[in-house]
Amino acid sequence: MSLVARPSDARRAALSEATKGMGEKGVPLVSNFFPLDRYFEAAHRVLDAFNAAFDARRLDDAYVYGKRFAIFSLEALPQHNYYESPRYSSIRIKNKQDMTEVILKLEKIAEWMDEEEKEKEIQRRRREAEERRREEERIQREAEAARARLMQFQMDVDRKNRDMKTAGKNVEKSALDKLKRMNGVEDGGDSDVFMNDLKRSFRGPRQSMPRHSIGPQEGTEGYINNKSEGHRRQSIRQELGARSSSLRSLDDQPLPPPLPVPLPPPEHSANSSAHSRQSSSTRSRELPPPPSYNAIMDNTNRKHGDSQSNTKVPQSALEQAAAISAAAAGGVTRREHQNLRVSGSVYANRELERHRRMAQKKEKVSMRVIKSQIHNDYQQLKSSRRIEVVSLSTHQGRFPDSTNGCAVISPLVVSHHLRSRSSVSNNEISNVIDKECGPLLREIRGKLNLSGAALIIPSDVHDHLVDKKLLRQDAFVGATGGNIMDRKHLAEFLRLFDSGEKNSHARFRTGAALFFREHVVSLVKVPAPGGKWRYDFIDSLPGGSGMATRTQCHDLVALEMMLRHYASSRFSESNCDFIDENDWDDCMADFDPRVFQCFVWGDILKKKERESR
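^ thats the sequence. predicted structure below, dont judge the formating
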């Protein structure tokens, strides 16, 4: 059974394009390594923006915000491993109630849109009828003007013909009068006598014709007097010259314009409906892009764990349109683009957002191109042996107890590294993966009421390891994070990992757990000959050889390239599209595929060493 088309179908379909480009399924990514509270808080902000737009009957904004809230609450939030935890039971129930109310309001919005589209269609048909009437009147006026010009042209031709005949007669009379004057005949004289004398002067006596003359003789049929014939031909040439002169003057007159093409007959109802559908499709393509999640997020840098929500209602579309016009008139720099984008609803700034994204595409290098460049640089460092990959004897998931255990495996490897005399050994890493992580995973998941294979938030793991005295709080150096593809953000982590806070660990060992794209890896700073340091990257997932790997980087430049290669290789096609379309935004970090976090520990400094710092 086919669904009946609604007047606002095309409009709502265009607005639904807003769900594309925001993750694998058209909604923001939800990471199990970030607390669920943050995502409930983000959903609540979208809900506030929806209610504000609904109350103001800003239907386009309300439809997009409402649909995003419903999809995010229905599809994205349940993917978090903590969603069913008793800790979030009350907020989960409230979220489901809000989702039901939003769905009912979305249907009401669709009805309002249907009414608006019907009225728009009526107005459109009125405008088209008025335009057709005006066009018919214009064509009729032009046709009447063309007919008038044609009649005037014909009258001018007739007048020119009459003038030409009169001019010919005047030429003949003028020539005759001249001959009379040359022979002394005055006006009013005996012109007949003159004409007879003139004729006789051209005739000679018959006998004066030489006998050997060729041709008809005078008085016979076909005889032509040469002199009279010459005068006659001269007269004819003068007449033809006068006529050609008159015709040339006619050529200077402009030709009338061609008659206009008549209007085609009205189309049948079937064609009209097809035209209506085509117009509707065209209008849907011309609709502006819908709002993004940035419209309802905090526009200031947010500390992790800050639960304060910003429910500031976005500016109206009219206010934002005025801002766009002012920006276009005075010229907009890239920084001003960003300021305008975050000053209110991005949907209200939809025209500016469209220009910003077009300029962004021209300026930015595609993520796929960057991935290829990084891969080539990584291979060169491997060839020069500044990066060496060592395979281990096991991997995460080889035994069921270690499945999704990277959040425990990584800090345990760091713990063994700091407790060793020099560096954690390959055998110790394998033992952590196969034996030590399993019991700890069961304990932590049981305490949090999580399912058997659920990923665990790193902070919960660290708290448990500190309670178990596997990590010491006084060994904690610091934490950092941000955009892993931003070399400034990555350099901040490398400084903390290599030297600690204020160079506290420049001469001491450190270890770090790096969280990125639903996986955790370990990094350890290892003493090397000659007073140098080596930096090892340990990944418990199977590598090219099918086992966990330990990648040895012999300097910080090699470690940076290793991290960039690791990160870029984990971006999916949709991640690359998202990165190409969106600049990094701190307030959207929890939803961005580029986000990373690092926790760094180091050797415990003795009192003298702390004082020497």
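The longest strand covers residues 519-528.
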